[in-house]
Amino acid sequence: MAIHLQLAFVLSALAFSLVLAHTHEQTVLDAQAPATEDANANPWLTKYGKQVDLGYTGPLSFSHLDYARCLEDDSNDFDIAILGMPFDTAVSYRPGARFGPHGIRVGSRRQHGQRAYTLSWGMNPYVQGSKVLDCGDIPLNAYDNALALDQMEVAYSTLLARSVTKSEGAASQELTHIFAKDGKAHPRIVTLGGDHTIVLPILRSLNKVYGPVSVIHFDAHLDTWGYAPASGSAQSRITHGSFFHVAWEEGLMSNSSIHAGIRCKMTGEVDITGDEETGFKIVSTDDIDDLGINEVIRRIRKRIGDNPVYLSLDIDVIDPGLAPATGTPEAGGWTTREVKRIIRGLAGLNFVGADVVEVAPAYDHADVTSIAAADIIHDFLSMMMSSEPPKSRDERNPWKDEL
């Protein structure tokens, strides 16, 4: 009996060894064989399709746009670049805008290029023939403002020098070559701030390509104050409240700029006189009630005319009840809807760039400020791709009373 059991065990072991050998041989052959179009090779793709990003998933880029580190990778061309400038070490009150680029991208997550048509604009900016690319953030030095300003200028100039896409009818190709010193088309950059000081290196970069430009400045504050150097430091003159004065000293702006939404406390009439010397006219917060939105738009357009123009929007132009996440909040501001309506009325001007600044997410509630900033940037893209302000919905498609 024991002999029979031993023999059975030996035969079983031999059979198992043969099975293992055959399995190994088949595995080797399978590995060497060419891949087949087996439907079961990718069950997810077969059953559910591509791995799309939801509004709350995927890598963090503005509106789920393609993302590239454009400063180091010059293989990507674009018509409009989204660029973050995480800088906030020249503020006078609350810091935190270095997190603005990240916060604005978070606020944009429900936006998407495949679902970007709006009733206000009557179009989707991402299907107008212009390539929009998120170029990430500039890795700025957080300890040396002079170095950080130079890094911003070099980065902005680097992207301005890139080629635009060659797609037919791309809006970014239609105007920039007319104003450029070299007669060539240049990309346009929408910048995510960062405190408002970032506009100084931006204007320095733009000046190399276009010369002095006009500025449309949405803000609660003038930002044209000229400060005396503190402790003998020339760098200390450059803050988020003085950068326009410095830009005027350097000849970076034409004498045809305009503020929109001003309501800050001032020293007195001397501040207004100094502001006018730097080339600005003021549309105050109250003017929207006294004059109406259409007149505000008319005054801005008349002031700018056909000049190349840069648009800079401080999120504190919006009332802090609607956009609390900012460094120097001022009560009594415009609503988000009013700001968006004015931007819509500026389409067709010769924009060479734009920004949203002073978003400081640490002071936000439920991302309301970041969401507003992201939506305004969507309007910037639509504005840059429109040759004129969109007609009202009733003009585009008259209301029909079926009764």
Q: What is the CATH third-level topology name?
A: Arginase, Chain A
Average of per-residue pLDDT values: 89
What's the CATH class label? Answer: Alpha Beta
Which sequence of SSEs, written as H and E, runs from N to C? HHEHEHHEHEHEHEHHEHEHH
Which blocks of ≥5 consecutive residues have pLDDT under 50? 7-11, 18-33
Number of helices: 13
For the record, the count of structural domains works out to: 1
What is the molecular shape? globular
Strand order of the largest sheet: 2-1-3-8-7-4-5-6
Estimated helix fraction: 25-40%
Largest sheet: 8 strands, parallel
Gyration radius, rounded: 28 Å
How many distinct beta strands?
8
Strand content: 5-15%
Counting helices, strands and paired strands, the structural category is: alpha/beta
What is the CATH architecture term? 3-Layer(aba) Sandwich
Instruction: Determine the N-to-C terminus distance.
Output: 101 Å
Determine the CATH superfamily.
Ureohydrolase domain
Description:
This protein has 403 residues and is an alpha/beta fold. The chain has a single domain, classed as 3-Layer(aba) Sandwich (Arginase, Chain A), CATH 3.40.800.10. 34% of the residues lie in helices and 12% in strands. It has 13 helices and eight strands. Strands 2-1-3-8-7-4-5-6 form an eight-stranded parallel beta sheet, sandwiched between helices. Helix 7 links the parallel strand 4 and strand 5. The longest helix has 31 residues. About 5% of the residues have low confidence. This is Agmatinase.
